[in-house]
Amino acid sequence: MKRGLPGFLLLICASLAFAEKPLAPATIVVFNQDIPESVELAKFYSQQRGIARDHLVGLSVSKTEEISRDEYDTMIRDPLRKIFKERGWWTLEKDTGDGRVTNSTIRFVAVMKGIPLKIRPANDYPGDKTGPGPVGNRNDASVDSEITALANFSNQISGVLQNPYFQSYRAVTEVESSVILLVCRLDAPQVATVRRMITDAVETEKTGLWGRAYIDGAHNTAPGLGAGDHWLAEARDQLHKVGIPLIFDDAPEIFPNSYPMSDCALYFGWYADKVAGPFTQPDFQFRRGAVAVHIHSFSASTLHDENANWAGPLLTKGAAATMGNVYEPYLQLTVHLDLFNDRLLHGFTFAESAYMSEPALSWMSVMVGDPLYRPYAAWLQLEGNPKGASDWSAYHDFATRNASLPSPEFRAAAKQFAARTRNAPMLEDLGLLEAAAENYTGAAGCFDLARTIYTKRDDILRTVLHEADALAKDKKAKRALDLIRTVLRIVPDAPASSLLRKKEGELRATPSR
To answer: Which H helix or E strand runs over 267?
Structure first.
């Protein structure tokens, strides 16, 4: 089937736009010159991205993750402002006499491990006035979010600054007279993890990020918290449109520890206070280049403990990029994951996608990963399927070529294609779509075929769980029970066997048919 002309032209235009300007000249690397590992990481990153030596900025700064406002001002803010002026990275408005910054040639800032993470609250800060409510009287912040507003010379530090780049759809290098800095940090519990994050980003974007998405909603109906589930539901729909197979769970509980979460390239979830579920299993590993984010108020309150909160553990388990908060941010002032996911899928960098989806600056967010990483930019190149990604890319190609079909027609055509090409991830995803449409017979058929094609144990067991659920909803509990018992006899000690036994117990209590 032929790709529609508007979509075809959109892809060509996007591809040309991203090819226009190299990003290295618009990037600086900030590191702690008193920590050898920070110096080496800065050199390594600049080599990987072709960043000039005069764009490396060493600061002598505290080695702790949390610093005072005075330490931030004297050790980070003031030295950076001086360097921006001396190296001509800022254009200053001289006529007014106040030296206001009118443009910046630097758009991206990569902050290395060794630079402090967060700024504790300050009392009686000169020139600051507290405002009303829980936001206006706060002046604690992440270091990175403060650096984004380096060109703002106001001493008003309480409350938030509105992000002018929020909801944008333009590459930041194409935004004229922009002075905000898109700040991401390359930081993790271990130095080796940071080096791996850098190389994973560089290597992954050559062919694109391929794999399965896992979205873990919370079905949270409490006042003011419904937005989180809305963002995740929107991300689900965006991923379906471009043919990324995904598992979407909107139950209040998070994915269980033993859930067979294989080939995880993208993870969005909320709302647990510390890492849990499959990520705690010793053998769990993300796919190379994965992006993983769990919404929580203190998800990044430290990046140096591989067992604390969410950001550090997700990176330790192989993610290349994550985001989080250093102190309580309030949900609406965090990154909107639906916008973030949308911008990533359209080929923007990690930094651009993050700040296009973050409404507030000088606040609590921290973006952890290579700012120049574009996990899906390779999808804009019209050069056929890359090697080693046949099942994933075939689904993506089919979905984008047939996006205009009504849902029932799309699913019917997709099932024929997936069955003919024996594309198990596509069949599993189509089974979930059929189940969502309450076509449980069709869903069970997709799952049945997928599990005969899969070769990895976790893929097979996850598909069995789907199939048993579809059969039960189709009032075929006996068939579902027979399937579960057959599989348990074959793999009684598999990590996911506890989920199979739980399903067996539920089916035993269901009237048989």
So the answer is: strand 264-269
Sign (positive or negative) of CA dihedral 414, 417, 419, 422: negative
pLDDT confidence of 389, banded at 50, 70, 90?
low
pLDDT tens, residue by residue, 265-323: 999 998 889 999 999 999 999 999 999 999 999 999 999 999 999 999 999 999 999 99
From the options 1.20.120.530, 3.90.226.10, 1.25.40.10, 1.10.760.10, give the CATH code of 405-508: 1.25.40.10
Handedness of CA 93, 99, 100, 106 (dihedral sign): positive
The pairing of strands 322-325 and 360-361 is unpaired
CA distance 328 to 419: 48
d(CA 53, CA 56): 5
Question: To 10 degrees, the CA torsion angle through 271, 320, 190, 60?
Answer: -100
Neighbours of 35 (CB within 10 A): 17
**pTM for the whole structure:** 0.93
How far apart (Å, rounded) are the C-alpha atoms in residues 181 and 148?
Answer: 4
- How far, rounded to the nearest angstrom, does the alpha carbon of residue 85 sit from its chain's CA centroid? 34
Angle of helix 407-421 relative to helix 424-436, nearest 10 degrees, comes to 150
Residue boundaries of the structural domains of the chain: 1-404, 405-508
